[in-house]
Amino acid sequence: MAISNCIMLFGWGQTGHRVVGKIAETHLTKKARKNIGKILGSETLAEVSNHMDFIKSDNHYRHMSPWHYTTIPDGMTYEQAGTSEEGDIIVTINRLIDELKSKQFTDEDEAFALKCLVHLVGDIHQPLHVGNGEDRGANDVKVHKPNPG
């Protein structure tokens, strides 16, 4: 049977990441908003949410590519699957949270870590960044719209 109603689906993109950043801003406590303001200055979470995608073409940041996703084979849990040596999105989110809590950063490094965290929280919430290892990060998953009637 030929499929005539194929639609290409894409990840969040710039707009989706900004929406995630904006939603996060609406749920901040006063203290968190003040601390984020100290770190980011005049930039908002929505504005910095795309930072990791903007820098990923720079060879200096190539080592961060695996941090955008995770692979969990069908029938396994994340814990059973284990983590690659390069890390993944879950390991990186937890590491960034711990590092930000430690307050052991220069101002520049702290801003960079926060920008990465905001981006990765957006990434982990899109299905195309959690794959089973055989689907190219869910990029090979075909979703078909059923024909009415």
How does this model look, in words?
- The protein is 47% helix and 3% strand.
- Helix 1 packs across helix 7 and helix 6 (89-102) runs antiparallel to helix 7 (107-124).
- The chain has a two-stranded parallel ribbon with strand order 1-2.
- The chain is mainly α.
- The radius of gyration is 18 Å and the shape is globular.
- It has 7 helices and 2 strands.
- 17% of the residues are buried.
What is the molecular shape?
globular
Distance between the termini: 15 Å
What fraction, in percent, of the residue positions are helical? 40-55%
Report the major sheet.
2 strands, parallel
Strand content: under 5%
Report the strand count.
2
Could you tell me the mean pLDDT?
87
Based on CA atoms alone, the radius of gyration comes out at: 18 Å
- The SSE order reads HHHHEHHHE
Number of helices: 7
